[in-house]
Amino acid sequence: MRISLRFLSVVATLALCVALSRGEHSASMDPIVTTLQPNAEGARLLGRVPVAFVPNVGQWGHHASYVAKFGAMTVFLQDQGWTFTLVERRRGEPDARVGPKAFPMREPNPAPGRGVAVRMSFVGAKTPELIAEQRLPGRHNYFLGNDPSKWRSDVPLYGSVCYRQLYAGVDVRVREQGGHLEYDLMLEPKAQLEPVEVAVEGIERMHLDKEGALVMDTRLGPVRMPAPTTWEEGPSGERSSVPCRYVIRGANRFGFEVTGRRSGWALTVDPGLVYSTFLGGAGDDSAHALALDAQGAATVAGNTLSSDFPTTLGAFDTSYNGGTYGDVFVTRLSPTGSSLVYSTFLGGTGYDYALTMALDSQGVATVAGYTESTNFPTTAGAFDRSFNGGLYGGVYVGDAFVTRFSPTGSSLVYSTFLGGAGDDRATALALDAQGAATVAGITTSPNFPTTPGAFDTSLGGYGDAFVTQLSPTGSILVYSTYLGGTGTFGDYAFALALDAQGAATVAGFTGSTDFPTTPGAFDTSFHGGYGYLDAFVTRLSPTGSSLLYSTFLGGTGDDRAYAVTLDAQGAATVAGWTESTDFPTTPAAFNTSLNGGRDAFVTRLSPTGSSLLYSTFLGGVGDEFATALALDAQGAATVAGLTFSANFPTTPGAFDRSYNGGYNDAFVTRLSPTGSSLVYSTYLGGFFGSRPFALALDAQGAATVAGDTVSTDFPTTPGAFDAVHNGRSDAFVTHLDMLPAGVFVFGRSSPGCTGSLTISVTSMPHIGNAKFALTCGNARPFTLGVCALTAQRYSSPIPVLGGVELWVDPTLLYMPQMAVSNGLGASEVSLPVPSNPALTGGRLFAQFFWVGPTAPPPCPPFGWSASNALELVVQP
After folding, report:
1. Rounded to the nearest 5°, which phi and psi values hold at 837?
2. Does residue 698 or residue 112 have the better pLDDT?
3. Do residues 243 and 874 lie in contact, with contact meaning Cβ atoms separated by under 8 Å?
4. Under 8 Å CB-to-CB from 415, ≥6 apart: which residues?
5. 776 and 647 together in one domain
6. Which of 669, 697, 725 marks a domain boundary?
7. Torsion over CA: 99, 104, 109, 114 (sign)
8. Angstrom distance (rounded) from CA 563 to CA 498
9. Which residues have C-beta within 8 Å of that of residue 159, sequence separation ≥ 6?
10. Which neighbouring-strand residues pair with 703?
11. What is residue 756's DSSP assignment?
12. CATH code where residue 862 lies
């Protein structure tokens, strides 16, 4: 059995940093810590240690066996427990404004303040053996003072330390997870949990909050340990959630209680991270684009300044070309994030940057972006093999590029420049069913290539957006048009999506009062005022010759759209950020008031662009910027971005509900299909900045996010490709299951008419949750079905109804719940959880079954289809 516990500092207006990072401590600090202080030089060296456990082989004059420095604490591992120290530091102020093309991060410039130390020890424990685990790359040398006998060299680094047999049959593993100190209680099948008790010294008081977290109040503020959420693992590898809670046993002691533990089953925590990995080398690396193939494998693209960026044998280009300017990288990870399928450089000797990417049905990657390299690689027969940029208006400018790789990343199918004499950047890309790439971006070129009959063949003001469709071979332009007005602040396209007919919907922002709009559109008037921009959403005809609709979107402040996606009915959902208090929202939306200086927004337009289906703010008291967006099978929008708010809205049972940032965190949030509530919302990050730029959902609705981070403590997972931060800034790729605590997906869907049928939930199944419901997506619109609720699951499916896989036991069936799909093929079945604590730990298994038409394909020949399945465990 395993129980995992995490520490989170929640000190308002203060950033907690390590007392030893400057070799200082408070005279009023708990005396136990004064015996643990290394000398000043040792403290300085400790401050350079990465997030790792370093054995004390005599380089420090105290009795701790291992020392680890986290972004928010230093931990000293001793027999039967550990001590952690904190000191307050005041943060530096963030930048006053954030520009349209960058989200700058400034590391804090703190000043030291008061310190505090907390000692945690296991009551009645044995003297255990401490075993270092997970050897990390690198070694440290300590040459302290002028006595060589006290010098230590080749000191190894470890990812975790295990206390073996702390109690009979109980091990404790101490490790880092997501920048926080975390420890796992691991119990053998017959070991007892009741004797495990922790005594705490150095705190003012201890209590449980309404979410079941253990809060230890210190003179600097509270340190919070979120409620442990756990699963059992059976002999055959099947998993099942089990509730676990803290039990306070005195003024400064606590223990643990697990409900419904089964004999012979191991227990582990559900962290919500399927995998999370760094990606990079010794230089700066940033991922700006992401797509998933049918197996869920992530392909990411971005920019690297690392000559040692990881590449693979046989890839198109394994040598760094960029010098001080940087190269594009394109990397495909395995579905588990544990290895590289292929990884290649792409670029010339100038500045090269990938900003967007898409995969076709075979998983072939097409990448687009910006290059200043005259020798950027192009292919024979491509539309344009000559660099068009150079000096323009006294400034060196570049071209857009579009490049398609072979399925293995070993060669180029085509690669072309795209641009004119000015500055040209491809920022968004989508593929149609034939593999033709439609690209949107920004141009200041009066001679940007356009096609006869296109909507607009003349450059407007300072710069225009452009929309260009290439042939599947990249050899000709199917259509190419400018899009913009005559404003001096320009028009910027940052997002693009294609409908089933190949019509491009483009989103971005504009400073042009005469940006083209259409009669009957939601908003045909510019609101931004001088120096402020409005978002826009524009749908072109499939041939690029006319506008189907075009609308402004914004208020009297700055409003900028960075992401757009379409549902099955053609309704566009847009995300970005706004500083307008009068940004248009809808009455039943999740949040109708601006919360800080800038908020993210998520807005869904009607299919004709004439009205808002919903529109909501999303944020806290700081600034928020939404950068990426995707829709699941239920039509629910998942949005990613960055937040500077310690009170950004999160949901119970999410991966991380506490703000980590000394400067900012990433966030990942799923709204309900109507935009009226949050289904799931979490922070994602470490102590310093993390910026997500790309997001994709798999068939089950799990989210993969990519971006960059300067946080060495950004959360990674065991077995991930790279768990060690490599340079000042690394790319990251993180896969979240987007399921709250107490919810586990298993099995697989049988095929339906519109794709895999996916089952999910609206919230965490906790005691008293009257709004809890099950959801299913990708059913045939307006179809009858049933949600089967049973007391038992199958570890292997039972085939029924001519090919449907049954994952739940019908012999233990509760009353079935009828389901009806809506026009999007989504359904919601209410399953309120009573306010009865005795239900804690109760299990339920669920699967949807749908009556549908028979063949022709893709409809099943037997007329029935079924979703995958869920296990639900009632949480306290």
Report:
1. -55, -25
2. 698
3. yes
4. 376, 377, 378, 379, 382, 401, 402, 403, 404, 474
5. no
6. 697
7. positive
8. 13
9. 52, 53, 133, 134, 135, 136, 175, 176, 718, 723
10. 697, 736
11. B
12. 2.20.130.20
Confidence check: pLDDT of 48 > 70? no
123 and 11 within one domain: yes
DSSP of 210-274: TTS-EEEEETTEEEEEPPPEEEEE-TTS-EEEEEEEEEEEETTEEEEEESS--TT-EEEE--SEE
Q: What single-letter DSSP state applies at residue 762?
A: S
Cα 537 to Cα 444, 510, 838: the distances in Å are: 20, 10, 51
In this predicted structure, the answer to whether residue 467 has a pLDDT above a threshold of 90 is yes
Q: How many other CB atoms are there within 10 angstroms of residue 127's CB atom?
A: 10
Neighbouring C-beta atoms of residue 453, cutoff 10 Å: 12
Contact 416, 451 (CB under 8 A): no
Are residues 74 and 153 both part of a single domain? yes
* Residue 241 phi, psi dihedral angles, 5° rounding: -75, 145
Do 651 and 795 belong together in one domain? no
- Would you list the DSSP string of 783-842? -EEEEEEES-EEEEEEEETTTEEEEE-GGGB---EEEE--TTS-EEEE-PPPS-GGGTT-
Span of 222-231, 601-610, 766-775 with lowest mean pLDDT = 222-231
Here the tokens at position 724 are 């060690």
State which of 632, 662, 697 marks the end of a domain.
697
Instruction: Indicate if 56 and 203 belong to the same structural domain.
Output: yes
Count of domains for the chain: 3
In this predicted structure, the answer to whether residue 567 has a pLDDT above a threshold of 90 is: yes
Contact 536, 553 (CB under 8 A): yes
Strand 547-553 relative to strand 15-17: parallel, antiparallel, unpaired?
unpaired
Provide the β-strand partners of residue 873: 843
What does residue 543 show for φ and ψ, rounded to 5 degrees? -95, 0
Judge residue 330's burial from the number of C-beta atoms within 10 Å of its C-beta, 0-12 exposed, 13-18 middle, 19 or more buried. Answer: buried
Per DSSP, the three-state class of 861 is: coil
pLDDT score recorded for residue 150: 67
In DSSP terms, 68 is beta-bridged to 53, 75
Cis peptide before 858 (omega within 30 of 0): yes
Asked if 491 contacts 483 with a C-beta cutoff of 8 angstroms, the reply is: yes
pTM of the model as a whole? 0.76
CA 398 – CA 371 distance, rounded (Å): 5
CA angle 12, 624, 215 (to 5 degrees): 30
pLDDT band at 415 (very low <50, low <70, confident <90, very high): very high
Answer whether residue 225 shows pLDDT above 90: no
Range of 463's domain? 458-467+478-697
Interval 55-85: pLDDT, tens:
887 777 677 889 887 655 788 898 888 888 8
CA distance 649 to 659: 10
The DSSP secondary-structure symbol of 366 reads E
The whole-angstrom separation of Cα 551 and Cα 515 is 9
User: How would you list the strands of the sheet with 665-671, edge to edge?
Assistant: 624-631, 637-643, 665-671, 678-684
Task: Kindly give, in sequence order, each residue whose CB lies less than 8 Å from that of residue 310, ignoring residues fewer than 6 positions away.
Answer: 279, 281, 331, 340, 343, 722
Q: What is the pLDDT of residues 703-727, one digit of tens each?
A: 999 999 999 889 888 778 998 899 8
Say yes or no to pLDDT of 180 above 90: no
- Beta pairing partners, 678: 671
Is the pLDDT score of 523 beyond 60?
Answer: yes
Average pLDDT, the chain: 85
State yes or no: pLDDT of 153 exceeds 80.
no
Mean pLDDT of 474-484: 98
266 burial (CB, 10 Å; 0-12 / 13-18 / 19+) is middle
DSSP 682-749: EEE--SS-EEEEEEEE-TT--EEEEEEE--TT----TT-S--S--SSSEEEEEEE----TTEEEES-P
Q: Between these two residues, 745 and 580, which has the higher pLDDT value?
A: 580
The pLDDT of 154-173, averaged and rounded, is 84
